Amino acid sequence: MRVPQNADTIFVKGITDIWMPIGHGEGRMLTSDRSVRDSLMTDGRVPLQYAPHYGDGTPVYPENPNGSERAVAGLTDATKRILGLMPHPERFFAGRHGFVRPGAHPKLPADATVGLKVFQNPAGCFS
Fold first, then answer.
1. Strands ordered across the beta sheet of 72-76
2. pLDDT (tens place) for every residue of the chain, 127 residues total
């Protein structure tokens, strides 16, 4: 997954690419019209998008497993303090949880703990 440059929420601070398991078989992000979809993107309320494994471009199945518009994998509310997402960072916060051997893929961090950062970022606001 990738974090769009204008993502404006504490949850993804310091993250550009992130690997997370996907544990959903249904559901996808759809909007009523293009203006809604565009405003979510321009307002920085899309903190995560599905991304192709290699290179750039618009991901398709299996990288965008449910066909979400604009490859949206997560959204925030208007305050950007509430995050809803389809992938599961809680399933990949230690190297032993890896579904790909750490270091075997160029975008996978060697320590494979980036999923934990999604939880540590907001927790750091209160310590």
1. 48-49, 72-76, 83-85
2. 888 889 989 999 888 887 777 776 677 888 989 999 999 999 999 999 998 877 677 788 888 888 899 999 999 999 999 999 888 887 776 655 555 555 555 555 555 566 788 888 888 776 5
Q: What is the DSSP string of 1-50?
A: -B--TT---GGGTT-SB----B--SS-----SSHHHHHHHHHTT---EE-
Is it true that the peptide bond before 89 is cis, omega within 30 degrees of 0? Answer: no
- Kindly state the DSSP code that residue 76 receives in the 8-state scheme: E
- The CATH code for residues 10-126 is 3.40.50.880
Give how far the C-alpha of residue 2 lies from the chain's centroid of Cα atoms, to the nearest Å: 6
Kind of pairing between the strands at 83-85 and 72-76: antiparallel
